[in-house]
Amino acid sequence: MKTYKFVSWNVNGIRAVDKKEALKWVDEANVDLLGVQETKSMIEQIPDTIFDKNYKKLIGSQSAIKGRSGTALFTDIDTTFECNCPTVDILDEGRINEAHFTLGSKEIAFFNVYFPNGQSKEERLVYKMEFYDRFLEHCENLRKEGKSIIVCGDVNTAHKEIDLARPKANEKTSGFLPMEREWITKLLDKGYIDTLRHTKGDIEGAYSWWSYRANARANNVGWRIDYFYVSEDLKDNIKDAYIMADIMGSDHCPIALEIEL
């Protein structure tokens, strides 16, 4: 058995993060797979100076509209299949990296996802919910084929009141609407595990995103909207899951999953 360390981070602009040298910690962190979201860049614009570590593979996606969205997956794990999920990301917004690989006896489909934000207008909220449903259907189809599922990324929804500092004030805000929260409940009911809650229980004040306004991060007025989910068959392989709140450089902080296979 070997322990693999996966990290997910919405960097809110990978070139801005590079200028701050905010990803240099990766060189010492022994990360086997790093998924970043909201790169806001074309694949060829991702700087090669973000860290010194030379990963075997970079799997990238980019939005059809320059400067928007974008995801990137850096890994030393040998993959057997890669795609950017066009049947889910139907608007070609650069929101998904899908990679398949085998660890131990498990054939894994790994997803690095920047789920849509529904706050700008009603049409985007509708699209967000449709995206959620297409994504879950895709994962379920892969499970039927015998794949184990790992999902990381910015889900853009806090699940329960414990997952944000001010739930009452945000009951009518996209990101904490009943329909959005119900989708996460449905995901869990389908046999996916919220790895942080699985390992840490109902710890309070565990957030992964803070507004840039009103000194929110210093006061820990945040939201937990970044997650690692795994399919139920990987439950006994979860070694640890945690939030890396001390790492700066974005309005999000990284989250991590350690899995033994």
Task: Give a structural overview.
The chain has a single domain (3-260), classed as Deoxyribonuclease I, Chain A (4-Layer Sandwich), CATH 3.60.10. Helix content is 18%, strand content 29%. Helix 2 (122-144) runs parallel beside helix 3. It has four helices and 14 strands. By secondary structure, it is an alpha+beta fold.
**Overall average pLDDT:** 98
Side by side, the strands of the main sheet go 3-4-2-1-14-13
- What is the H/E string? EHEEEEEEHEHEHEEEEE
Distance between the termini: 5 Å
Provide a short characterization of the protein structure.
The mean pLDDT is 98. With 261 residues, this protein is of the alpha+beta class. Helix content is 18%, strand content 29%.
What features would you highlight for this structure?
4 helices; about 260 residues; about 20% helix; Deoxyribonuclease I, Chain A; alpha+beta; six-stranded mixed sheet; globular; 14 strands
Sequence-ordered SSE layout with sheet pairings:
Elements: E1 3-10, H1 14-20, E2 33-37, E3 57-61, E4 71-75, E5 81-83, E6 96-103, E7 106-114, H2 122-144, E8 148-154, H3 178-189, E9 192-194, H4 195-200, E10 209-210, E11 222-223, E12 226-231, E13 238-243, E14 255-260
Parallel strand pairs: 1-2, 7-8
Antiparallel strand pairs: 1-14, 2-4, 3-4, 5-6, 6-7, 8-12, 9-12, 10-11, 13-14
Helix pairs in contact: 2-3
